[in-house]
Amino acid sequence: MKRVLFVDDEQQVLDGLRDLLRRQRKHWDMTFATDAQNAMQLMADKPYDVVVSDMRMPGTDGATLLAHVKQRHPEAARIILSGQADRESVLRALPAAHQFLSKPCDADALRTVIERACQLQQMLSDPAIRTLVGRLDHLPSAPHTYFELTRAAQRPDSGVGDFTVIVEQDPAMSVKVLQLVNSAYFGLAQRVNSVQQAVMRLGVELLKALALSVHAFSALPVPPVKGFSIDSLQQHSLLTARVGQAIAADKTIGAEVFASAVVHDVGKLVLAMCMPEQFAQVIVEQARSQKPFYEVEREMFNLTHAEVGAYLLGYWGLPLQIVETIAFHHMPGEVPQDSIRTLAAVHIADALADDRSYCTDVESGRDQKLDLTFVARAGLTEKLPQFRAIAAKMR
């Protein structure tokens, strides 16, 4: 059974949650704490898979509590419940919370978020990897992109279009705006799968605050990994996004394809940050063996950057379509027929965008090859020559 800890200073709120979630008793071992100190003690005594905390509590508030959980128990999913939609609360909780939910919270929404977090934990069975990923609150951005956004935020005439152009070029920033705007905290009726829509929803003032916040888009240095470059990965991701959007069979999903493609390799950033030495060994072995990059990862780690990226972004609450596309962009044949439109565009674009991997100093062949059986299932085989020509022009 999954262990879930609920924290709120109002006993009636906890009683309400206990009643709303009574059907989950067969699946979850639920504990209820009335303050942060009690919650910390409970977590010191035994581990929890998910922690759901109110934001505003006397003494130690939810943001501080989840920061403690992140530091001491990073493998746990961290969810904030808040009825305060002010910018200060968002920025304070952003580094510590995986997801935001608004109060009062719908039982089905809360149940779905917790179940999803538990399923994602099962995606990566290695507790060491879960712990490493759990410590991340944001991904590193290429320094020049961060400075571009900062300069735009300081210009009084900057608008949504200016920020969208900058954000769309950076996987880490795209992830953060999609994460935030898709949190239940913002109460949107539909999931936002487009970076441009996300920027528009957030608004210029909040985006400026995020840009200037050291917790959101700071240009953190990645440990040096020979043969790996954030700039090269960023260029590949953006090219994949442009190609994917251009070849999308259904143009109504173009924005979703772009958003999915621009973040499809964020798992490599995670591995470069968390396991630099081991990741460097993958680069060397891939260059030596000429195997697809993800196959070498599987042999050395028993997982791939696709799974790591999907795990992290799923935790952060990005739309399921984006998470699924990231998880299976190397193995698209494992996805049901009714979910392949966005995945097909990203899978093909990723294979055609560049004949090289992200190695900057060695020739290592293609990072992956097309799954031609899947391409046929998607009904796109005859269009491959056209897609190759589009990619060649954009390279």
User: By helix and strand content, what is the structural category?
Assistant: alpha/beta
Categorize the overall geometry. globular
Strand arrangement within the widest β-sheet reads: 2-1-3-4-5
The mean pLDDT is 87
Helix and strand pattern: EHEHEHEHEHHHHHHHHHHHHHHHHH
Relative strand content = 5-15%
CATH topology type of the largest domain:
Hypothetical protein af1432
CATH architecture of the largest domain: Orthogonal Bundle
**Total of domains:** 3
Q: In angstroms, what separates the terminal alpha carbons? A: 50 Å
Helix count? Answer: 21
Helix content: 55-70%
Task: Explain what the structure shows.
- The protein is of the alpha/beta class and 395 residues long.
- The chain has three domains: 2-123, Response regulator (Rossmann fold, 3-Layer(aba) Sandwich); 143-212, no CATH class; 230-394, Orthogonal Bundle (Hypothetical protein af1432), CATH 1.10.3210.10.
- It is built from 21 helices and five strands.
- A five-stranded parallel sheet has the order 2-1-3-4-5, sandwiched between helices.
- The model is unreliable at 356-368 (pLDDT under 50).
Structural key phrases:
395 residues, Hypothetical protein af1432, 3 domains, 5-stranded parallel beta sheet
Write the layout of secondary structure elements.
Layout lengths: L1 E6 L3 H10 L7 E6 L2 H10 L4 E5 L7 H11 L4 E6 L4 H7 L5 E4 L4 H17 L3 H8 L8 H12 L5 H8 L3 H11 L13 H8 L1 H9 L17 H18 L6 H9 L3 H9 L1 H14 L3 H9 L3 H11 L4 H9 L11 H14 L18 H6 L6 H11 L1
Parallel strand pairs: 1-2, 1-3, 3-4, 4-5
Helix pairs in contact: 2-3, 5-17, 7-8, 7-11, 8-10, 9-10, 12-13, 12-19, 12-21, 13-18, 13-19, 14-15, 14-17, 15-16, 17-18, 18-19, 19-21
